[in-house]
Design goal:
The structure is a homodimer. Chain A is mostly helical.
DNA sequence: ACCTATTTGTCCGTATGTATG
DNA sequence: CCATACATACGGACAAATAGG
């Protein structure tokens, strides 16, 4: 659990952290069911606010990678590993298409015609 | 235009062909605006039915890669090159997610949470 | 089974910076 | 240059789950 944050980067802190956790799951540095340290603890270690860490966790929960429950802590979702690959692909697709100037509707259509 | 078809493969013929054309555009073996041979001709060269070739062309037209007009022939779309990358990503995403057993709705959600 | 204290994420509000018009 | 809107990051109070006695 050796995460680092660059406060000078233009990339938001919560995104930096989310990216690192995502990669950790993809590379199996974190495995399914494994418990993460409490947000407060991670925050202290990184020198950022607890809410910044929580926000990263929330993002990953929306992506199906983490299970976050108050009082119980945060852990890697039961089927996170197979999901990670798709999430990475979805992220690449959106960022590349965005850079090319595509509208959100057009991006969704790209996927729909493949279904 | 050295395409090959494997009639023994489990992959549908029209998909095989679509994949080859897609790759040809991605690698710039085919460039924007370039005209493709008539479907009848391609079909004869590959030993398949003309409709198989047309089906592949239609798929690629839906993806924005080809312009197919009756009487005028088929050509690579004006902005096909930048599109290909996204299409490849979208195809990977869908096929990987499908293999993992995701529903279509879930696949679209993967993308939506990234928008 | 009970009460209480602790742990841990959630909710509400605020300040600051970064576009947008 | 100003006003507006939006997103980021932070702080404090709150509520669910858990652990000890």
């Amino acid at each position: 659990m050796l995460w680092k944050i660059d406060t000078q980067s233009s990339q938001p802190l919560h995104e930096q952290l989310a990216g690192q956790v995502r990669r950790a799951i993809a590379t199996r540095a974190l495995v399914e069911g494994e418990k993460l340290p409490p947000a407060r603890e991670v925050a202290r270690g990184l020198g950022v606010n607890m809410h910044t860490v929580l926000r990263a966790f929330q993002t990953l929960r929306d992506e199906g990678l983490l299970e976050v429950r108050r009082g119980r802590g945060t852990s890697v979702a039961p089927d996170a590993q197979p999901v990670t690959r798709h999430v990475e692909l979805a992220r690449s697709l959106v960022s590349e298409a965005r850079r090319a100037g595509l509208e959100d509707r057009e991006i969704l259509q790209l996927v729909e015609v493949q279904l």
